[in-house]
Design the sequence.
């Protein structure tokens, strides 16, 4: 057992996947869905949830045949040393890019909504410090941090229910008014939001109760789906179909409408606490990238690679500061990459393993 002293429970496994998925996507998802699907966009979330569950179960089937291997070791076993390492490099770059996109998005959000006068370099440094402290200790501490994030954010979904005042449920009717095609074409917009279940490729070897991996990943996807549907439906019934397209982050605009007698600017307080959830999208992808890079170079300790990434993140704002539109384009390219790495690759590995695994067992015998 290579991972005996760094194992996670089923509860932590569910939370890591769930919080990785919810992350940045839930803030802009209602607008993205309304653009192509109109008021029927929430149906696309359910279809995207079904698709993500099916592919998630394929991931677990692949890992069941190699319970002690991460995706990087698995690729080498299946395709040989050079091809496997080449594919591992692409997976590492994908995970590092995903973490970087969310990191830049977080810096942009905080600067836009909370501290518009602060330099991006300072914000980047302030975020790097806690992310480094948590990631350097490995997956067990990441699991504990996921539990902490859940505890401090339990109140957030209930707060959004306050926005149901002065809503117009007729905005949702008639259901399916534009036909089936807009609903199906909008499913691709949910792909980015459901990305995160591919972390099972990394988490599975660390999971104590591997027999419950399928149940855990279904629960994680289902929790994400419920949050996405709730936020989207509330946004659709609170804003008109035309008005919602004017907001880049409709979820935060919902909070601006909530008025409490003892509190103002509720969206700032919400976003400050939501930073921890955003960190829980960055950290698993970052850990996957540095773990893969360490295994690629035959190193036992992932902290050296982690320090390299942290230095690059700190230096990068001096040369490249993405604007809001550039961050949006980066998110789209992440979604396109995720289509291949999270949805297509597991199916290829499952088919290849189904054909290759029996032959390998015969050779060993």
Sequence:
């Amino acid at each position: 057992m290579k991972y005996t002293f760094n194992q996670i429970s089923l509860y932590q496994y569910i939370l890591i996947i769930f919080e990785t998925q919810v992350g940045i996507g839930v803030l802009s998802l209602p607008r993205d869905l309304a653009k192509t699907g109109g008021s029927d966009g929430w149906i696309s979330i359910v279809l995207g949830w079904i698709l993500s569950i099916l592919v998630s179960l394929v991931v677990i089937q692949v890992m069941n045949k190699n319970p002690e291997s991460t995706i990087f070791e698995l690729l080498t076993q299946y395709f040989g040393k050079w091809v496997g390492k080449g594919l591992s490099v692409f997976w590492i770059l994908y995970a590092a890019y995903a973490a970087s996109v969310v990191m830049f998005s977080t810096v942009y959000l905080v600067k836009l909504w909370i501290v518009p006068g602060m330099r991006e370099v300072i914000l980047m440094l302030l975020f790097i410090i806690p992310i480094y402290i948590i990631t350097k200790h490995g997956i067990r501490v990441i699991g504990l941090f996921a539990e902490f994030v859940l505890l401090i954010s339990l109140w957030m979904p209930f707060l959004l229910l306050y926005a149901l005042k002065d809503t117009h449920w007729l905005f949702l009717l008639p259901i399916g008014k534009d036909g089936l095609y807009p609903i199906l074409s909008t499913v691709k917009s949910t792909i980015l939001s459901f990305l995160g279940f591919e972390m099972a490729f990394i988490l599975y070897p660390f999971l104590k109760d591997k027999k419950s991996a399928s149940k855990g990943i279904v629960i994680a996807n289902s929790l994400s789906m419920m949050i996405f549907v709730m936020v989207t439906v509330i946004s659709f019934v609170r804003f008109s179909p035309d008005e919602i397209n004017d907001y880049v982050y409709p979820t935060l605009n919902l909070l601006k409408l909530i008025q409490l007698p003892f509190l103002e600017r509720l969206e700032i307080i919400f976003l400050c606490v939501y930073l921890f959830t955003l960190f829980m999208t960055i950290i698993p992808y970052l850990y996957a990238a540095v773990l893969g890079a360490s295994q690629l170079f035959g190193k036992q300790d992932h902290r050296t690679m982690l320090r390299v990434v942290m230095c690059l993140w700190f230096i990068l704002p001096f040369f490249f500061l993405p604007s809001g539109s550039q961050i949006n384009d980066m998110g789209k390219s992440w979604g396109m990459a995720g289509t291949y790495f999270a949805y297509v690759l597991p199916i290829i590995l499952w088919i290849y393993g189904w054909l290759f695994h029996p032959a390998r067992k015969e050779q060993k015998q």
User: Anything to note?
Assistant: Residues 16 and 146 are 6 Å apart (CA to CA).
